[in-house]
Structure formats: C-alpha cells, structure tokens
Amino acid sequence: xxxxxxxxxxxxxxxxxxxxxxxxxxxxxxxxxxxxxxxxxxxxxxxxxxxxxxxxxxxxxxxxxxxxxxxxxxxxxxxxxxxxxxxxxxxxxxxxxxxxxxxxxxxxxxxxxxxxxxxxxxxxxxxxxxxxxxxxxx
Length: 138
Hints:
mainly alpha, 68% helix, 8 helices
C-alpha cells in the first residue's frame, strides 16, 4: 500500500480520489504511475466504477486490450449508464470486428446521452438511429 499513497500524495481518507489522480497522471503522460495507482486503487475500491474506467484507459495505452475490455465491462456492471465506458467499449468491439456489439454500446450510449448530437448524427449515418425506438436497449 505504500506505493499507492506515495503516488496518490494524499492521506488514506482521500484515497478514493485515485481515479482522478490517475487521470491527471495520464494527461501528463506518466503512464506507469497512472497504471500502478489504478491497479492498487481498484484493489482497494473494487466497486468504484470510475476507477475501473480509468484503469481501462491505462490498459488501452499499454495495448493490453483484453484487460482494457474487461475493465470497461466491469465499469458498466457497476454503472450501466457510464457513457465514456460505453463509447470506449464500442471502440474495443469495433477493433475486434464485433460490429453488432459495438453498435449496441453506441445505441445504449445514445439512450443515456440523448443530447450528444455527434453520436446521434453518427447513428443516423450508419442507419442505426431508428433502432433507438424499436426495442429496449437498457
């Protein structure tokens, strides 16, 4: 746990902030510290969806694609409407040539973020927009 608090630079009571700190580390291109902090943080706060999401971003940057997918799925287990995780998971599915699953993530994303005009325009351009009104997605 010492590394966790060293990287976090906070007292133990503030340690749930690890996801925010790790995101800042990613922005500063301190990938190793961000990954280490997230992995330790998620061990302590297993059910913290944002921590799983940032860990997924870390895995993406380290090209650990199976771990990335697992963390985005775990994020959605704890927070089904997490729009960033839905978009990230859609990207993962498209990379793996799983277009139907990627489309489903984007459609769910549109349900949870109905004012995202870029997303709605993309769904329209792909002929997916009408599916928002056909069957339950959530």
